[in-house]
Amino acid sequence: MPKIVSKHSLAMRWFHWINFPILIIMTWSGLMIYWANDIYRLGWGNTTLLKFFPQSIYDALHLSYKLAEGMAVHFVFMWIFFLNGLLYVLYTLFSGEWRELVPNRNSFKEAWLVVLHDLHLRKTAPPQKKYNAAQKIAYSGIIIMGLGSVLTGLAIYKPVQLWWLCELMGGYAFARILHFILTIGYTTFFIVHIIQVILAGWNNFRSVVSGFEIVQDGNEKKSA
Amino acid sequence: MKKTTRHLFANYSKTSVEYKAAKKTLISFTIFITLAIVAVFSWRWLWNQPFDNGIQGGIQKPFRSILNLNEKVFGNLESAGHLAKTYPVSEAAKRVRVNGNIGLGNNFDATKWKLQVVKSSGDTAYFTIEDLKRLPKTEIIFNFKCIEGWNQITWWGGVRFADFIKFYHLENESSMKYVGMTTPGNEYYVGIDMPSALHPQTLLCYEMNRQPLPMNQGFPLRLIIPVKYGIKSIKRIGTIFFSNEKPPDYWFERGYDYYAGL
Questions:
Q1: B77-94+110-243 belongs to which homologous superfamily?
Q2: A139 HSE (CA, 13 A, CB side)
Q3: What would the pLDDT profile of A76-87 be if each residue is shown by its tens digit?
Q4: Option in A21, A67, A210 nearest B148 (CB)
Q5: What is the pLDDT of residue B72?
């Protein structure tokens, strides 16, 4: 007998769906700022494997000559990004939902088995509750990354007034690199997340909008 | 054959799990899509707001209000008189990056240059570079930060703006909220809040790497203000004036933050 089981609280769904467009706006405005001094690349010496970013990307997204616009958008929407993240962390702490999210000492070993299972290299996945071990690591890691973006962001936003933070983040130029790498991290997370959501199917996706999922004979299903 | 109209719930009894799930799904997705549409229209509304002060190429008014709020939030942190970190001479760049040449035209006659200071009485006081060099010299080696995102440790020398004010008894003037500075031909101009101008590391600067300023660094006199982005460190100061209103600012008019503090 299928059952309707509530899965994601209303608060979690709000935090998730507010964060989605805000992160896009922050990334987009961040790219407009980065364009003005786009010096990062993958490579060594005079060899460049990948330039961040090729002109075609700036052209496709209309990012050139928009530093002022980028800064204005970035320093306005940073508040929503920060407050939404802060409220999310407070909510998980006070609701007790952190217990489902924070990895334990078995999680790192189990996460590997989950990855092998997802890649169809292993038949069974380790038993799980709401989130599997890989999800716990990913969803906790993204919060640490969010904190990292706030701290490195503040370090390059107010390097004189918050000089101690700037030093802690490895100095002005290094904090800027970290801030950039974290954004590449979000983009990677986003792509993997979308693939996982598509693979997990409709019942799972619906639960992030409606809050409930349909569970067959008492077994909770996998979620992305 | 009887024609039946099928609808979403047709096959389900009203107590079935499928019926309940379909109903809940429909309601929640209706709300979800409605909110998504509201979000898109809010963004478009924001983007179509008029620019501040009707300035050509400024930024939308709601953005400006939040940027001004940011100035209040983060500007207050500065009250402790934070100094920008300084570095040893060995770390100072030999080849100093040049960025921006607005107001540095080729037909500049250095022999005729004098610093003009508009006093609150309406009179204008004139100063030669020797007048400034007679005042105590302050040197600073700091990490110069351009709003574009690059930074460079550079070495400057000059007279503290605060010392200049004190020596020439411009206290009436410096009790106002802002100081404005322009190039001799008014091509480039900045407005600076008085606390930042009077910051002990703010220099009326005439030396770079212990040599007179090069032409492309604003010979004979420029501002060095380490608590701001480089856009405020105006090259080749022609006129200094004081005001309780925000003086015009070149990059502010082009959409940048007025405060531009670090």
A1: Oxidoreductase, molybdopterin-binding domain (3.90.420.10)
A2: 22
A3: 999 999 999 999
A4: A67
A5: 87
